[in-house]
């Protein structure tokens, strides 16, 4: 499994972490998700081909994403 990080600057609280983690965890190819509102970063362990789908899931949940 690879690790990659997405920046989600408008993730500001624990509630945001829960929403984002829930949205990304169900994406095929994603193993584990660590959403950290203090840094505004989501670290994902999984198949690198899932990165685009994980990003889309975060955006669909209402958050902007930066690589």
Automatic annotation (TrEMBL):
Start and end residues of each HMA domain: 2-66
Entry's Gene Ontology molecular function annotations: metal ion binding
Listed InterPro entries: Heavy-metal-associated_CS, HMA_dom, HMA_dom_sf
Keywords noted in UniProt: Metal-binding
The protein's name: Heavy-metal-associated domain-containing protein
Source species of the chain: Natrinema salsiterrestre
């Amino acid at each position: 499994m690879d690790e990659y990080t997405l920046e989600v600057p408008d993730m500001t609280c624990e509630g945001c972490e829960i929403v984002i983690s829930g949205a990304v965890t169900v994406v095929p190819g994603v193993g584990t998700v660590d959403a950290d509102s203090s840094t505004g970063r989501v670290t994902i362990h999984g198949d690198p081909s899932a990165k685009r789908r994980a990003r889309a899931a975060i955006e669909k949940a209402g958050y902007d994403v930066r690589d």
